[in-house]
Each structure stands twice: as C-alpha cells, then as structure tokens.
Design brief:
The chain is α+β, with helices and mostly antiparallel strands. The chain is 49% helix and 14% strand. The chain contains nine helices and eleven strands. The longest helix has 41 residues. The structure holds copper (II) ion.
Length: 395
C-alpha cells in the first residue's frame, strides 16, 4: 500500500513540519521568558499531532481508493458500466474552481487589511500605486485564466461522442499572448525604474539638501550618527575601531569632530533624508514599513536609501487616534537569536523641533576618545585653545 511516491510525500511532509518547528521558536523565544520548557513541549505535541493527522489522511485515501477499485472490478465482472473517471475528474475540477475561487476571495477580504499601513513618504505613495496597479492587472489575468482552465477541463472532458480538434499552430494567438504581456510588463518596469532611480540617486535634486545620517546595524542594535553644525559626516574606517570608537570614525577628517550620536532616529518632515547603511557583523536590513524603506545592511558594502517623510508622528497619531503611536525601524533579516529585539523609534517632527532636538544630542567624540586619540596633547597652546572651542560646540 505504501509505494515510493507515498514515501516521498511523507518525507516532504516531515521536512515541512521541521520548518514549522524552526518558525515556532520565534514566538516561544519572544514570550515572557517564564517556563521555557513549556513552549518547546507544546511545539513537539503540535508536530506529532499533524504527522498523525497526515498519516490518517493517507490511510483514509488509500482505503477509499481500494474500495473504489473493488467496486469498479465488481461492476465489470457483472457486465455493468464501470465508474466514469472522466466525469468524476471533471466534477472535481469545477468543485476546485468554486472552492479555490472562494478561498482566494476569503483570503483577500480577511487578510487584505493586514497589508502595509498608510504610506508616509513621497516615494511610498508611488510604490503603493505600482503595487496596486500590478495587483489589479494580475488579479484580472488570474481570475480569467483560472475560470477558463477549470471550466474547459470540465466542459471538454473526454467523451466517446466527441473527437478532439487538433490545433497545431496559430500566429494570431501567439502574437496576442506575447505582445500584450510584453507591453504591460514594460510599462510596469519603467514605472518602477524611475521610482528606484529617485531612491538611489547619489546627488541631491536642485534646491534640495539631504540630511545624511549613518545607520549601523550590529548584533543586536541599530546605531545612529548625525552630522553636527557643518552638516557633514566624517569618514569612517573599520580598522580604527576601538572600545571608545565603536563605529571606527576617522578623526583625521575634521568633519568628524562635531558628529553626534543618537538613540532615536529623528527626522524633519518634508526634508530629503539619506540613510547611509552599514553593518558590522552579519547582514541586517533597515526596514521602516510606513516609509516603504527597506534595504540590506551588508558588512563591507555600504548602501544608502534616500526618502522624504511626509507625515509627522503627531499627525499620524491624530490620524490613527492612537496617542502612543510611533514609527519604527526594524531589522528585516533574521540575523541571530535576539533579532526580534532590533528596533528603534523613528520620530518625524517639524524642522524647528528637529533643530532643537539635534542641539541636545551628545557628541560622538567623548572625553575618553579624546584622551585615547591624544587630541589635546598633539596641539600647540594656540591650537589647543581653538580646538577646545570647537569641541565645546559639541557639548
Ligand atoms: Cu539584524
């Protein structure tokens, strides 16, 4: 009763359940932390339950198959008409079309609202428009092709009364199903290409000055570095990394002296922001769903993402009627055991609020780092005076 095909299906099912166990670890680990043995036990109970259910289902299908086979043979022995499997399969196709169609409708209406929240950036609105256009076009094609596929399987199932029509080739059909998708896909790709170009443009548009912010991911936190009064971030070099200089900022570059560090990503509304993205150990991913921002943070390969927020945190709180609302920056790569903890608050504020906030941020160049770099000793008394003035700006 168990042949090689059934054995393969069993192996596939076990592998699938194995993946389930892996995924089930996240909520267990993210739990309250009490009674760690219990979730593991519950997981394994769940797995054995589904394995058992699958085996029972296999057994039931095999038994029904055998019963039908016996019924079929007895019909033939009594010279009665055997089961018409073409009709059975045809009806199954129609049932599949109706049940599957309803399932697609159900998942769209039930889970459709679980998609992304309202876009709060300029390019985010464009991405949503692209996504909606693609979804509508593919949905129309999906509905038409599925109805045709299953209806034709039912309507033109094998019948002794009918002879199949042989259609070797038709140029018109070939042209239609090549040219129409080619035009539609070209329009979608070109639309996407222009949006992507805005995001990855290295130079500012005319009359625009982006705020450069360094975002660095490491296991398991995000670090922010803001430019000081000069509006410029100093260079970085990983070989300069020490306990006091964790991001490896190069202080041979005078732009580094007034750089600031922050715990929250605060950005002014309607100003272009360029996030310079770094990783110090494994691949992380900067993900801010409201702004439709997502880009990998790759060790040794700096990336960047340019976007313009359009809705302040306060405006969003009023819109949602949720006074506790915060925009969030997540890590979107499963980068290790406490990956889920890798998030930061992002606050969109007015330009004056941003400037006021920036003025209160601590300098990256701490006293300990100054001592380590012997910054004070390496200068003449006159320079010392100047540099202490310059450094005083940071405090
Ligand atoms: Cu991460």
């Amino acid at each position: 009763m168990i042949d090689s095909k059934k054995l393969l299906s069993l192996i596939a099912a076990v592998m699938l359940l194995g993946t389930n166990v892996l995924m089930a670890q996240a909520p267990a680990a993210a739990g309250t932390g009490t009674a760690t043995d219990v979730p593991a036990q519950v997981n394994w109970m769940g797995i054995s339950y589904y394995v058992l259910l699958f085996l029972i289902l296999c057994f039931a299908v095999a038994v029904i198959g055998k019963i039908l086979k016996v019924y079929d043979l007895t019909q033939q022995m009594q010279n009665k008409r055997p089961v018409n499997w073409n009709n059975v399969m045809g009806i199954f196709c129609i049932v599949f079309l109706v049940v599957g169609g309803y399932g697609a409708y159900w998942s769209l209406t039930e889970q459709g609202s679980m998609t992304l929240p309202e876009a709060a950036s300029v390019h985010g609105v464009k991405i949503d428009a692209m996504f909606l256009t693609t979804t509508i076009i593919t949905m129309i094609v999906f509905v038409i092709t599925q109805i045709c596929l299953f209806w034709f399987l039912f309507r033109y199932r094998n019948s002794p009364k009918r002879k199949a029509y042989y259609l070797p080739h038709n140029n018109t059909i070939e042209k239609v199903w090549t040219i129409i998708p080619a035009i539609v896909l070209t329009v979608l790709v070109v639309f996407g290409f222009f949006t992507w170009q805005e995001i990855t443009n290295t130079t500012d548009a005319k009359g625009e000055s982006s705020i450069n912010i360094d975002v660095t991911g490491h296991q398991f936190a995000w670090e922010f570095r803001y430019p000081g009064k000069d509006g410029l971030l100093g260079r970085k070099n990983y070989t300069l990394t020490t306990a006091n200089n964790p991001r490896g900022v190069d202080f041979k570059d005078k732009n580094s002296f007034d750089d600031l560090k922050a715990d929250t990503l605060v950005i002014p509304v309607r100003r272009s922001v360029k996030l310079n993205i770094f990783a110090e150990d494994v691949i992380h991913s900067v993900y801010m769903p409201h702004f439709r921002v997502q880009l990998n943070a790759v060790p040794g390969l700096p990336t960047f993402f340019r976007f313009t927020p359009t809705i302040t945190t306060n405006e969003m709180r009023n819109k949602l009627g949720d006074p506790g609302f915060e925009y969030l920056l997540y890590c979107n790569k499963i980068c290790g055991s406490t990956h889920y903890n890798m998030k930061r608050i992002v606050r969109v504020v007015s330009e004056p609020e941003y400037n006021a906030w920036l003025a209160t941020q601590k300098p990256y160049l701490t006293d300990a780092l100054k001592t380590e770099l012997k910054l004070a000793d390496a200068t003449t008394p006159e320079q010392k005076d100047n540099s202490s003035k310059r450094l005083a700006l940071n405090n």
